[in-house]
Structures
1.
Amino acid sequence: MRLKEILSKYFKGDRVIWGVIFALSMFSLLAVYSSTGTLAYKYQGGNTAYYILKHFVLLMVGLGIIYITHLIPYKFYSKLSQLFLYLAIFLLAITLIMGTSLNQATRWLTLPGVGLTIQTSDFAKLALIMYIARVLSMRQHKIDDFNGIVVSLIIPILAVCGLIMPANFSTAVILFVSSFILMFIGRVKMKYLMLVAGIGVFIITLLIASIAFTGSQGRVGTWQNRIESFVSGDSEDNYQVEQSKIAIATGGFFGKGPGNSTQRNFLPHPYSDFIYAIIIEEYGFVGGVIVLILYLFLLYRAGVIVRKSNRTFAAFLAIGLTISLTFQAMINMGVAVHLFPVTGQTLPLVSMGGSSILFTSVGLGIILSVSRGVEKNLELETESENESEPDEE
């Protein structure tokens, strides 16, 4: 059996998206191996294989999740979306109360019994996008109903983003904007969208003002310092960005080559937040553009899926999840080249990190599930049309 036949038999859905996933995984392995050298000498006695093996296992688990998830009919996710939303709100609330804190941010929750630590906002992003896709598809015939839209969409969006915001402002903004775009695509009236935007701005302003009034800095102080440093351009306060810019500048057009990064020794978190800078340093402008194009191609293929789909839930689900993933990637890459303040966002499927990889894999698997379902429906429609055509004499 030829390789093409094997791939067609076992890997369903959009082949281009599968290609993007494997290409990003290869970039991930190479970049993580190169950028964890200092980490290995600091914590593992110089065992440079430790982190790459751990990352490789996580990537393999992620690919397994993608494969299993893409075999599940996408309609099943519509049924799960409401349950997932309630679970996400519960987990976010528990995380704020008793989650694991790091760098003044309580983002992680340790699951009892298994000892696994997850970032609950990653799950919440998936749950909210799935829920919005379901509601939009069910209410297309009465999309102008104010009460239905407010209760069914606006309140859940504000609840989830509001629970994420105290510990992870950038994730809350990314999710809020992704939800806003998805509602716009779903034909929600502009006046309702402006209402959502207005309430969101009001809540952010109220939170910052209340914390500033009480004198409790915490995460607000971190946000303020990052924004002020970004605007002022002060190199002392922008140490991470300055090191990232050095990595990008010394990378040139073709880069220094795999494993030859020097800024990995100076950049904080070169294996996660600033992994894009390491990619450009080692693979140059060409490598950086290839990674950018891979994410843009993922967005383009989601548009192709939407165009082919004759089911509203499938279309909203695919484009919503893809917008969220692509937007996060653009923010990460924008931070590396100093277009945005430092946010702490990972590069989806490329940065090292268990929670990010696992939930990104679920999202990609769902997108492929939609693609698989759309292709199957098109095949059935084609067969039905061929059977209905009269035989020529």
2.
Amino acid sequence: MNYDFVNSPDRKNSDSIKWDVKDGELPMWIADMDFKVTPEIVDAMKQKINLEAFGYEWPKDDYFNAVASWYEKEHNHRPNNEWMIFTTGVVPAISSIVRRVSHIGDNVLVQEPVYNIFYNSIENNGRHVLSSNLLFDGNDYDVDWKDLEKKLANPLTTLMIFCNPHNPTGKVWSQKEVQKIADLCHKYHVVLLSDEIHGDIIRTGNDYTPAFSVTGEAIDNVISLVSPSKTFNVAALHAATAIIPNENLRNVVNRGLNSDEIAEPNLLAIPASIAAYTKGSAWREALLKQLEINFKYAENYLADNLPEIKVVSGPATYLIWLDVSGISEDSTLLTEFIRKETGLIVSAGSVYRGNGKQFLRMNLACPLEMVKDGMQRLKKAIEKYKA
């Protein structure tokens, strides 16, 4: 089947967060794609609505089989069905797990710069953010292993939130790196909570490694959170899965998810998720090809027109990570200027902490013509900024 990655749905005046903008503005910030959802998902949703009866629901084996089969087929690792718990989203689950697994005043370890909502889940629940900042050599990010082990060994560190693959840098952690992190967490009795929401979006190179696939005793300390939301642009479905091999840890998390009332699916969550996982493989392949075209265009455009901006993105996600340190040391002010002068809306890297103040994050999951428009606006803004 040929899928449409050229025509973008008009989401203005549709309650869209992304497209709640002024006329002439171009939002390329929030992690939300501007492609039509694959028809197989839409068909499943229509069939559900046609029942004209919308009572309470609960996921059964068909849901968990769909999740397990997807990870076996697409990522070569099949979780056991009994490891899985339905939840209404990765972020709500993170907050719930923070409350259940750690205690008020504990350290929750992250690797800055990292997805900014992690900080909300930690700090809003009375825990402390403890960062083992990623090492940046000007081209790539790596784990500071000595610092990571030191901070995991801190008696107050009880939980690590691992962005796997990494947002905003696009880093795909190798199997050895994931195993080593899991082993260190087990050594120091720290639960490893792995946010794998971008795991399906690896444009090139080696696949990502789910945390639930680690071997040895470390598997008893890991939680993987997965969802079709980023892959298929169905965030408003509020559907995700916690994969927890260890029974005791799974029971603790399950109690928290139910106590927090984030374990019950809405009307469309189950059929749409099953359709995504059982019928969405071809669409995902087409998506990855389109994203690679978009990234190549952006990289070439920047090299030819804005050599002061350096692309630092790894091969994961549809978010390009741009080093603007040659232009500004304050990405917040720079993004404000870009929006004011051109209407282009991108994310300031400062919200991700670490060295993010020297970066911009830009969403390229949109038709190529929109990428071209965004690049032209960025060029216009930077030229004015430097003048």
3.
Amino acid sequence: MTDVKMLDSLYSHIMKVIVATGVAPHYTEIASELRLSVETARKSLNDLMGPGKMAGYWLVPGTDIIGSFAPFNNVPTHYRITIDGETKWWGQ
């Protein structure tokens, strides 16, 4: 199980990337940015938001790819989010 400090860093990093780019990072990108091995990043991501973890946060079924990270969705939905005239996010 990933320690709480790492989970906090992981959560913060993912949220910052989504806000900045409109797209959730892949665990290989997380590994590079947080200076982790790819496998550690993948396992930590699953510890943070795998099945049975946090509501509103899920991985695309059968993968290790972020599907939703509340209040954002990484998979297109009918809910577009526009901030200061910029539309690059999908809502849950």
